[in-house]
Target: TRAP transporter substrate-binding protein
Amino acid sequence: MKRRDFVTALGIGAGAAALSACGKKESEDCAQQGIGEQAASKDVIHWKMVTTWPKNFPGLGTAPERFAKNVAKMSNGRLQIKVHGAGELVPALEAFSAVSAGTAQIGHGAAYYWKGKEPAAQFFAAVPFGLNAQEMNSWIHYGGGQQLWDEAYEQFNLKPFAGGNTGVQMAGWFRKKINSLEDLKGLKMRIPGLGGEVLKKLGGVPVNIPGGELFTALQTGTIDATEWVGPYNDLAFGLYKAAKYYYYPGWHEPGTTLEVIINKKALQELPEDLQAIVEQAIRASNQDMLDEYTARNNQALNTLVNEHKVELLKLPEDVLKQLHAVSNEVVQEVANTSEMTKKVYDSFTKFAEQSRAYHMISEQAFYETRTL
Amino acid sequence: MKRRDFVTALGIGAGAAALSACGKKESEDCAQQGIGEQAASKDVIHWKMVTTWPKNFPGLGTAPERFAKNVAKMSNGRLQIKVHGAGELVPALEAFSAVSAGTAQIGHGAAYYWKGKEPAAQFFAAVPFGLNAQEMNSWIHYGGGQQLWDEAYEQFNLKPFAGGNTGVQMAGWFRKKINSLEDLKGLKMRIPGLGGEVLKKLGGVPVNIPGGELFTALQTGTIDATEWVGPYNDLAFGLYKAAKYYYYPGWHEPGTTLEVIINKKALQELPEDLQAIVEQAIRASNQDMLDEYTARNNQALNTLVNEHKVELLKLPEDVLKQLHAVSNEVVQEVANTSEMTKKVYDSFTKFAEQSRAYHMISEQAFYETRTL
Model:
């Protein structure tokens, strides 16, 4: 039911929409305001949000919870979004299909999970040697990225949004040192996505293991190495107890962008003010996650290095150069998949070129100057 | 009048608040919904927003306009914010006092403008060799910065928010080359704030000239150099026609944070949902400005270098090192001003130390790796 129809049906104008301020949970408030629960709860819109993270997983999972709380506050309780952890309503990797079909109205995950449905999706999550957080946000919101993302998801009845960012991730935890390209040969490493394909081309063996099983796999030597996120999440997983060497930089995920997807019909059926509330809350939440990761990563790195005596190492320059060259090949192959991937690739690489040039004299030059 | 009182007075519950969906501008919509304009416009809250920028000034001035539009949409017209350019209601640098006194309910500017009222304010705008945009946002939102900012503005009845960011600025436009520290001696440069104090300690002559007079001052040689913002704003001002050398990096303003200030009483008098709407819209707008600057700076640098053949130069390493050393002295002097400045300085520098360490192996390492 569209808002206007609803309003007309009740014949009391826009005011009707706000009665829903008193949802089920707010019955006490409503009682104080003299509104019966039954009448009040009538117009509350309930959305289900499916996520690809365990409920309240630090950073990735807490962001959708905060977003839902903000929407409830901003809408005066008229839009209630219930957040479901992975597997609660649908398995993690079925979130996309669930929102596309309308089983859930909204989802939180990362676009590279959906490369099987639309290969172009990968450009909206993480591209090896691609864009960092600031650049991803700028490309999406002011560089034409959003329009292409909309177009790519059109066939699925989904409207996508940037829904958080981890910043540059870490290259990962290794049980043995990486001194040369030779050391990548036969290396069994948990590294999904494009990064994994790059490793494979260099003779490594990328494997995909769910987060929950990572620690044991690494500790028992089932795998030789794993990437995960960054110091904050890695410390929480205790990975430093399973591998000695912590490598940087996260060449494969330089500014991993999380994603909110909304079923288009569900979005369009919201009154316009609630649409605006949802969109602005996503935008705010997008920045909030990066702010949190930046602060918590600072602290966690401190703990890892000073308390847990982690050996922090930079990947050798020739290894990084080779990873970069092979990454370009892998990304080019994705670009050649379809007209859509080609279009997204062109927009992305054009933006990346300008951005690299500008950031060399701004952000990069400042970082370098500060540490002279 | 508080929302609850208002609601009680009308005796019709939360629904009343939303009648205001039909503001004066929405009379057509309201007519369709069968609500008379007079009744409908009753509950619209009108706020005046004073800014320190000319009306619709690119980036800095367009951000508050977008913010006001978003608030109107999200509140279904219940909160109408009219944006006033500098000088329209009060002169630019009286925005702080106007919002403090309640003449206007909200303001947009930058905290370093208010150092005469509260020296600690400078830490919330730009600190030479301090934090970049990502770090400022993280310090403010997850590093204790916001609490200190609140405390610093408490006495003025103001609630401050991060309200945009320009990213790393440029060092500025120079009519002659800077080859050594000698070249700073006697240099007449428009560079306000802490950057100016640093220049002065190194024998330069900092002057303060309003933006509108910059081009002529530089072209006629009244000044030898000027900093302004970055490629996007600098290109629009045509500064490349008045000076030949464009220096980087913007050591003096590495992540200039803009500011929204709200009169505390006005904020508290809003219904809770409108408070949440205003706060989230500011947060979204904070990121939006950086996204825009990043994209437009990319493009503008391209134009400056390729079309206007601007000579892009990096300040010599020994000059940067000396600027850094003197900046530390100047910032330390600010810290010694009061208990408040000391507290903010301690929080800021502790965060900056951790952040420098973390970003050396993440953002900085990635930038360097990408350009190997």
